[in-house]
Amino acid sequence: MRRLAIVITLLALCFTVIVTSTYAWLTYVQKKGFVGLETHELSVVLEVNDQAVLNSFSLDDLAFIDYEKDFVLNETGTLNDMASAWLIKLSSANSSPLAKHKVDLDYLQDGLICLLIYQGMNDELSYYTSDYASLVELIISGYDTKEEQLQAIAVHNQIVLDEIYKHVFNPGDFVEFQIVVWGDYDEVELPNTYLDSNFDLTLAVETVNSKGEVTP
Amino acid sequence: MKSFLFSKRILIIIVLVLTVISTSLFAYAYFQNEKEFGFSILTGEFEVTAYISFDEINIDINSPYYDVESQTILVNAYDSDSENFIGKLKIDIEIDPNINARARVKVFDEWELTRTYSEQAQGSVIEPIIQTIYHTEQSSLYHPFSLLKTGLNYNLVYDENGYAYYPNLISKGETTTIHLIDGGDAYPIRENEIYMETCYVNLKFVVEVVQANRFAEVGSLDTSFFDE
Predict the structure, then answer these.
(1) Contacts of B153 (CB under 8 A, 6+ apart)
(2) How near does any CA of chain B get to the CA of A203, in Å?
(3) Highest mean pLDDT among A212-216, B18-22, B26-30, B156-160
(4) How far apart are CA A110 and CA A148, in angstroms?
């Protein structure tokens, strides 16, 4: 009987320790004479070009370019100027526990060329990349066909998204990255009405506590 | 009895272990969140506004000095007291693009001199003589082959077809103003007992704005045009 009591005590202690360690991820609030556990939601704050985004955001500066002349060869030297670039700032909320953020963007759409650029955590980089032409040249060099070049861009973009997911965010931490887009005139289905075309993208942010992994 | 106690212990242990595992799993599953943000990207456009005024008073399409049909502005080039005198004319072009752009302008000014003869002693009537006036090249303060003066900081670059290009990239989200015309010189008419002359300018201008990468194609220019 005494053994049973010991076993139960040990198991109860074990249970308490596990529960306590589990809830250690939450904010711990001590009140007079009592111990309370206050839950906080894993949440993110998104800003685009210094504007907070609650659900959606609209931009109207998309320019269509010629893939070969402008994107690959940059004949007029205006590829940087024709880019529609959005600086995304993804922050963990100040009340959020330690977390990781898995970002996904459905940018693979006909008529749209998208380049992601990692800008670092918590202002670790003191500059924002604006020379997209050089970066594009670097990424696609060695690839001959358009398909291969776009695939190289896609691989680069995935590296950027993976880099974001590697970081553990403390409350208030933020990561910055750029979404740079161009319209691809050659891929537009109706060239005569391409000026009226618009694209809808979804930026999905899956957040998980720092010890976990995002599950499908 | 002993066997019953043992199996009871096992049962309690299993229940406790299951409780611990399920609690842990539940707590873990709680810590995942997903949020989606939607982005709409629309094609950029340009907005061009022309401000035309005589003596700081803006005119519009209802003005008596604007011919809707021919889309020309009627400018008096001989009488400084006239409301639409050339010296009072001012035209500013405001360009507000959503994407980086290049702009070019071209001024079409037709100078028309009319000579009206007085009634002759014999009662014969001579029909007025209308002739088009051409000017020689003036200084850089004037539009080419015109007595119309350019505005402040007008440093546009001309191509061989007479189009004047704004030399800098017009940045998206910023308003750029081209001071196209700021006054001009009167044409020296003659007036005597036999005839009197009047001179009017039929003025028209074209503004073209293109996205920055298309200037060479649209203007049939070399890609290094702005580098020269």
Answers:
(1) B179
(2) 5
(3) B156-160
(4) 15
Q: Token digits for A62?
A: 């998309």
| B33 to A206: CB separation less than 8 angstroms, yes or no | yes
Question: What is A55-92 written as a DSSP string?
Answer: SEEEEEEE-EE-IIIIIIS-TTS-HHHH-EEEEEEEEE
Determine the average pLDDT of the residues in A12-29: 59
Name the CA radius of gyration of chain A, rounded: 24
**pLDDT (tens digit per residue) in A59-69:** 889 999 999 99
Q: Which of residues 184-213 of A touch B (CB under 8 A)?
A: 194-209, 212
Mutate to test the interface with B, among A11, A15, A49, A76 (most CBs of B within 10 A): A76
Which residues on adjacent β-strands are paired with residue A52? A47
Contact A198 B41 (CB under 8 A): yes
Tell me which amino acid residue A16 is: T
Which residue of chain B is at minimal alpha-carbon distance from A76? B223
d(CA B175, CA B47) in angstroms, rounded, equals: 9
Put simply, the answer to whether B16 touches A12 (Cβ < 8 Å) is yes
CA distance A21 to A151: 44
Query: Which residues lie closer than 8 Å to B154 by C-beta, 6 or more apart?
Result: B178, B179, B180
Read off the pTM.
Answer: 0.74
Dump pLDDT digits (tens) for B51-61: 999 999 999 99
Exposure letters A16-38 (e unless 16+ CB within 10 A, then b): eeeeeebeebbeeeeeeeeeeee
Nearest CA in chain A to B44: A61
Instruction: Work out the number of other CB atoms within 10 angstroms of the CB of residue A155.
Output: 10
Q: In this structure, are residues B197 and B78 in contact, taking their beta carbons and an 8 Å threshold?
A: yes
The mean predicted confidence, pLDDT, of chain A is: 84
Token pair, residue A43, equals 């949440």
Query: Which of A61, A75, A196 has its CB closest to that of B44?
Result: A61
Handedness of CA B67, B71, B77, B80 (dihedral sign): positive
Looking at the complex, does the CB of residue A84 fall below 8 Å from at least one CB of chain B? Answer: yes
Nearest neighbour of B211 by CB, restricted to A44, A58, A63: A63
pLDDT at position A98 is: 86
- Tell me A141's DSSP state: T
